[in-house]
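Our preliminary data section would be incomplete without showing what the modeling component actually yields. Below, a chain of 419 amino acids is followed by its predicted structure, encoded as tokens that our downstream tools consume directly.
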Amino acid sequence: MAIVVKSERWLGFLRWLKSRRVPKAKLVLADFADSGRGLMATRDIEAGEAIVDIPESVLITRSVFLDSLAREGIRADQEWPLSEHQALTLFLVSQRLFPEAKWAPYVAMLPTEFDSVASQLPEELARLLPSDLQDKIKEQRHKLKQDWTAGWDFLKNIDRASEYASMDERLFEWAWLAVSTRCITLESTKNKTMDCTIALAPMLDFLNHSLEAQVETGFDPTTRSFKITTRRPYRRGTEVFISYGPHDNSFLLAEYGFILKNNPYNHICVDREFDNIALPGERPDFRSNVLRILEQEGLKGDYTLHASEASYRLMMALRLRVSTTARDFKDVLRRWYQVQRGERSTVSPENEAAAHETLLQIIDRLEDHYRLNVDECRAIAAARLERAAFDYGSWCVEELLGEHLEMLLALRNTISARG
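Predicted structure:
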């Protein structure tokens, strides 16, 4: 059951779309019980029909921000270049500080906060996340700080710093996250016809993600608009979706602030666990040699576990790691290369058994770690529920850890069944 949004902000936004000559879509903003706020079909939509068609004049790109400066006599594009993300961030900041009628109805519709994005979670929850997601959070926070500095350097260089004096880190972060979570990629359906590669697309960015969505997207140079065409029909009163791509829940939580139930792309990254595992009798010089070989062969890192199997990369790396204690390492290495080339299936029965034993050790440690983290996350969620309403961020963390535990159990059962 969906509740149609009828706020004055939404109605004003629709009037704004009409004034900007955006083709009327068979869509209305609604609140859905399972997916939150999204777009609902007001009439049946057939396969092959355009869901949205956003004219180029309504797309917000780096050029829009730089052109606004050029109208004031500031030629900033050559002397003080900004990345597209930085430019769009400063554009949204400018619209908050100096609202323009041209864009105000759209900016008013943007979320006021992005507190479920992984980098925005409180530290007590963030530290419970899987190691690869924690690394992603660090990267994002570092990038945000870099862009904050670059933004101020740019404003100082064009003598606009005093006008932006009220831009604090919180406002910049809001704008930065709005761009991160809502921008689209401007891929042409025919050829490259735009200088910019990302944009904010009013109306389009209200569409939620679904793995079942079947769409064609891209900038059409003939109509000079960004179109999304559905390859499947939608009935009136149902939510209309697009696909953000084949991403696992860790990626979705980091980039967009949500997760999907039963996501088939889920996996567990075990790069840190592979690096940290201690093998009996493994000499440091042999370990360094193994890591060098793996890097030379393009097999260093990106080690993953799935519900049905460990990745090829991980198993090849484990086969080599457990070989460091072998008496004749050169002979083992020769056979390892043969496995890599597909000339044999295993290095040896003993090597294969040792690799799987090490794999089970990794699974054991992760299971123990995730169970403790799930318990702690539940305690945090319960405490928050006593103080306020349901906390979506803590739910996402608990679900993500629970999914990882289920994958580990399924993989353990698969390994046991194979003997």
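The two ends are 48 Å apart (CA to CA). The first helix runs from residue 8 to 19. Preliminary results of this kind motivate Aim 1 of the renewal.
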